[in-house]
Amino acid sequence: MAFTTLPSIRNSISCPTMLVPDMPHNNISLRNKGFIYKGQHGINLRDFTKANVASPSLPVIAPPTPEERKETTADDRHHHVAWTSIPQERWEGELQVQGKIPLWLKGTYLRNGPGMWHIEDYNFRHLFDGYATLVRLGFQNGRLVAGHRQIESEAYRAAKKNKKICYREFSEVPKAANFLAYVGELASLFSGASLTDNANTGVVKLGDGRVVCLTETQKGSIVINPETLETVGKFEYSDSLGGLIHSAHPIVTDNEFLTLLPDLVRAGYLVVRMEPGTNERRVIGRVNCRGGPAPGWVHSFPVTEHYVIVPEMPLRYCAQNLLKAEPTPLYKFEWHPESKAFMHAMCKTSGKIVASVEVPLFVTFHFINAYEEQDEDGRVTAIIADCCEHNSDTTILDRLRLQNLRSFNGEDVLPDARVGRFRIPLDGSPYGTLEAALEPNEHGRGMDMCSINPNYLGKKYRYAYACGAQRPCNFPNTLTKLDFELKKAKNWHEEGAVPSEPFFVARPGATEEDDGVVISIVSEKNGEGFALVLDGSTFEEIARAKFPYGLPYGLHGCWVPKE
Ligand SMILES: CC(=O)/C=C/C=C(C)/C=C/C1=C(C)CCCC1(C)C
Ligand SMILES: CC(/C=C/C=O)=C\C=C\C=O
Ligand SMILES: [Fe+2]
Q1: Three-state DSSP class for residue 397
Q2: 160-172 tens-digit pLDDT
Q3: Name one GO molecular function term (predicted).
Q4: pTM
């Protein structure tokens, strides 16, 4: 297995494209190394750390003091904690549990997300720009040890060292010192050298046990240690497929890693597969775009048991926007309704395209699941693919600007979204359909950040978990359990709270689809926060555990079971 260890934090890090003075390392927040912290609930963490944490020598680091929280950045003071930068690099300790965590829940929930949105006095613009913050909830014997840690990407280390952004983030572009530097930067954009490796979107456990944090850039694939949250090194793809970007959400099972590599030169996508224990992606097949001028954004895609579904969304990558120093209204993308929207289905084994249909225009970040629809004789007649669909309106990207997230004044400004259900016929008809899978008012017309029981991946399923809305709001603020059979949703909500993606963990040995728990991390209005465990079936709270400090919002998670 090939990982490259990242150079030590003490090594010199400079911006890739600009000449900058070599400033001393800005070690702002690693405090109290080796200090044994007595938690606010009076638990002696020394005993717990020795007994339960895989790396017994790991120091327990004190949570931020109220003063430190205030000091995050001058601008952050009155923001909801969900949109406030994490004030220190790491923390770990035991949380006091209210309620009962099932004894079968043994393992680690990891959540990744952009948790630091400033460097020095400079505040980032967009939710997706933040440097990656990993959060860990370790469950064992009904107890819960938690922690968070910054991912030591090159982009993060360079920014800290040089006290400015040094790589191209989602919306932020490093400021070129002069014209020559600007020309150099354009050159480095084509080589990928100036693109970020800030792995802030998700985290996956590969079939071979390696845990990898991911984002939209291929170089932003970073191996971490799920116990200590330490950055182990870059995940280097050993093939020669090239390309700079990929889907932020590969489909990962014990047997494979499937992903899409958009081709910005000859508009299309490579569908690739990587075996556990290797770093080599092999091409299954290629889909040529039917619209243009560039491939549609593929933040995620779904699979069925036999097919990989390649969405071709009219929100397309835009080479010109990549070159711009200032963000455009749709960032690195452009909305091309005239280019139409398509769904393609490729056979996982042969790479043959079995369907390529035009569908109504759509906007989605996240596919929920897909499955093959059969007739009475068991013949596959169509593919059903579900996604969190933003009513083919791109406004949601702008709503996720930090200024918008931080300025909620009671106005109901979250654009409507629904569960969009595609039907892709396999009989050669040229059109597919897209309809709401249930009445969107069931979940307050907010819909994103979804999970399912992973045992139902690619199969006919009944339940999904997602964030919905209790209006008025400016961001999804509920957890919702969707029942596609009854076309009903059950919602969890607490006033002013921002819960992150509800993540389903199945009970080992379960036979019912919703037999398990749903984990989320909630950022509260008063600046505090807690880990929440709901029963997957009743969707009632079974446990919560307060963090000693509120956490910023996070995106996607994964489960690392303890054998
Ligand atoms: C956090 C999240 O969901 C999305 C993050 C997206 C990123 C970091 C996108 C980065 C990109 C560039 C820096 C240039 C190339 C295009 C693109 C992949 C959008
Ligand atoms: C948080 C989000 C959308 C919320 C919309 O209501 C999208 C996140 C995308 C990246 O993972
Ligand atoms: Fe995502």
Answers
A1: helix
A2: 999 999 999 999 9
A3: oxidoreductase activity, acting on single donors with incorporation of molecular oxygen, incorporation of two atoms of oxygen
A4: 0.89
